[in-house]
Amino acid sequence: MTPLSRRSFLRSSGAGLASALVAGHDSHSSDLETAPAPRAVVSPTPQNLAPRDTLFLTWQRDPTTTITVQWVGPALEDPTVRVVPRDGAEWKTGTVELKPFGNTNLKVHRCEFTGLTAGTEYLLQVGKRVPSFQLGLRPETYRFRTMPAKATDTFQWVSGGDCGTGPHAIGTNVIAAKQEPQFALIGGDLGYDNGTSAKTAIQFLQNYTKHMVDPKGRLIQMVTCLGNHEVRGGYKGKRADATYYLPLFDGLYKDTTYNTLDFGDYLSLVLLDSGHVSPIGGEQTAWLESALRAREECPHLIVANHVPAYPSFRTPGSAPASGILGTLGIKEKAGGTGEENRKYWCPLFEKHGVDAVLEHHDHTFKRTHPLIGGLKDKYGVPYLGDGSWGQLRVPSKPESRPYLAAVGNAYHMSVHRLEGEQRYHVALEESGKIADVYGTTGKRPAKRG
Ligand SMILES: [Fe+2]
């Protein structure tokens, strides 16, 4: 990072925030590999929700020209959702689709606009249609911006995972929003609803809606991928087990729980399911290979998955058996964290020029070296994570896991700044402290240093 851009980043990062919150363990720090078993009784849901309580923006297709407006609440008859460029005059009115929200009496309201102008700030009105004789009662007005058509100007977005609904998740929301990100990518384990708690899923949205607004008052779009705490049982579930996740995000995950999101011709997000509904191998891996091959030349090709290939807390390999079996090198059981990722996915990331993989689930900050086959290689793929937006654990040290380049145990999210061919990945703690700055340039192997 040049001195100037680093200085300007530091200035805009909120690094001067006075109160560094104490990084302690919380109720989720004993996260289980498997989420609790399904409960027969669904937890009560908040009533009297208005659109403004859970309103958020996401995407189903190219973020340069589209936006999807969503909220959860009682079915709103004939709602108004309309947008207009901030300096325009012609409002465009959308059609609102109502969908069930799990087995609650609430509805997901979804309204997509296409054909918007790239790189433009819009006004958005959402609410009950107002009769003409009551025009003084305007629906609520919000602001957002579409993604730029080309990556000619510097822009940034944020990522992280494993949020929950506690005070640290909110604290990280606040520091994330201060960065004026174009969007937030949450890599699984959003609210920890476990597919059973509508109340938790709604609380996550309420927190996001309230705090993920940038300093200029613009809503920050949300992109997600699936984690174990969105699915009843955590792993090997069915779509219906993602009880409160897929009703919100099946615009992007219509037929599968993995997909790509292409931003014009300059940024592609490849969003994977690390075994929660879709198995890692087989169909998903075959799809991944073709998706990556088609995007090899994309200037910024980023993958996100929940369970890490290169964990910083959990054990990556099979546990050695105790006693004489251990001394003979015999493993007790197969299935270390990330084994299937490393077997099926990592070779494809290396082959097809993935620029960074965003990982989560282990509740730490970690950055690996650029890796090929698990070994440091200047032309390799860096893995960034490890999911401590609102959950925390103590990571292993790089000395004991040579693939790790940097670790930390503070609540954090990452700010990704794209400057032409240059990428900066800045790990920013809840307190505003910069934990790590990492940069790569261009595509491997010709230009990356
Ligand atoms: Fe997780």
Task: Give a summary of the structure in a few sentences.
This protein is of the alpha+beta class.
Describe the structure in your own words.
This protein has a seven-stranded mixed sheet, covered by helices on one side. A six-stranded mixed sheet has the order 11-10-9-23-24-25, covered by helices on one side. A four-stranded antiparallel sheet has the order 1-2-6-5. The longest helix has 14 residues, at about 200-210. By secondary structure, the chain is an alpha+beta fold. Helix 6 runs parallel beside helix 8 (about 340-350). The chain has helices at about 5-10, 50-55, 165-180, 200-210, 245-250, 285-295, 325, 340-350; strands at about 55-60, 65-75, 80-85, 90-95, 95-100, 105-115, 120-130, 140-145, 155-160, 185, 220-225, 260-265, 265-270, 300-305, 320, 330-335, 355-360, 365-370, 370, 375, 385, 405-410, 410-420, 420-430, 435-440. The protein folds into two domains: about 50-145, Immunoglobulin-like, CATH 2.60.40.380; about 150-440, Purple Acid Phosphatase, chain A, domain 2 (4-Layer Sandwich), CATH 3.60.21.10. Fe (ii) ion (FE2) binds near residues 162, 189, 228, 229 and 306.
Largest sheet, described in full? 7 strands, mixed
Helical segment count:
8
For the termini, the CA-CA separation is 13 Å
Task: Report the sheet-strand fraction.
Answer: 25-35%
How is the CATH topology of the largest domain named?
Purple Acid Phosphatase, chain A, domain 2
Averaged pLDDT, please?
A: 87
Number of domains: 2
User: In which order are the strands of the major sheet placed?
Assistant: 12-13-14-17-21-18-22
Q: Overall 3D geometry?
A: globular
Q: Report the strand count.
A: 25
CATH top level class name of the largest domain:
Alpha Beta
Instruction: Specify the CATH homologous superfamily of the largest domain.
Output: Metallo-dependent phosphatases
> What kind of assembly state do the chains in view correspond to?
single chain
Instruction: Extract low-pLDDT stretches.
Output: 1-33
Helix-strand category? alpha+beta
Radius of gyration: 22 Å
CATH architecture of the largest domain: 4-Layer Sandwich
| Cofactors and ligands | fe (ii) ion
What share of residues is helical? 10-25%
